[in-house]
Amino acid sequence: MDKELHVVFGAGQVGHPLAQKLLETGKRVRVVKRIQGDVPEGVETMLGDASKESFCHEACVGASVVYHCMSPAYDTKLWAATLPRYMDNLIAAASKVGARLVVLDNLYMLGRTGGKAMNEDTPVNPCSKKGAIRARVAARLFEAQRGGEVRAVCGRAADFYGPRGSLTMFGEYFWKPVLARKAGMSLGNADTVHTYHYIPDVAQGLATLGCATDEQLGGQVLWMLPCQPAVTTREMVRRFEPAVGHTIPLNVMPRFMMNLLGLFVPMVREIKEMAYQWDEAFIVDDSRFRARFTMKPIREDEAARATVEWARQTYGTK
Q1: Total-model pTM
Q2: What topology does CATH give the domain 5-161+198-227+284-292?
């Protein structure tokens, strides 16, 4: 009997470990990406441009489940141009082959919540340009699901950390100075409680949604992916210290400095509109996922050790 085919679009921070976890469950896995690069051993690779509907359909032929883990460069104009197209194309492709579409999304569309914990019922209320884009794209997915155009399920996560998390707050700009025994940098209030999703937990959560039966999903389309309890950024940094072997000083970039740098540094300019997420408690309530599925997040100390090990391998002195 042929193995069930799961197709993963995107092989970055989450797509790569997701493909690995699907392989471990005995699935046949095809990774779809734009260029050659690192993929888990044992997966099929298909190169092409997901902005083309015909290519997406070709890549999905034979699939039982399709995963959308693509993440264009962190640029508002690029998001506006590419994210709706990616969603339309994957909805069409999954529909044509009769596959379930599993979409990874963030929380930008929820905007400010006044510190109230976010769950699947939190209303959409974007307060940023990127949040407005995400809201439109998510609405397209849910409309397609309600209209019977596609069988879809969406998993949402907050800010990432962990192995392969080079484009996160705990990525290159944090670890390079820390491993050189200098201070790490926080771009937001380091003393505000904030949910950070561990990347392997995100990957396992998506795999769980992809492999679940219709009965297990119970008709629910939107899920908050499992996460460790929210802590302050300063507490997160302290978790890394036992594995690093020394105290990690932490500098917090003042808002005026972020505004000033935003005039000259494109990435800072893109990030600053999202700084509101550290102005108030930013907490994800994953209780619905935990109640339905048996998966639990990886222990905090284990996650911290694995993150530091990855950082040493990636950014440490060679």
Answers
A1: 0.96
A2: Rossmann fold (3.40.50)
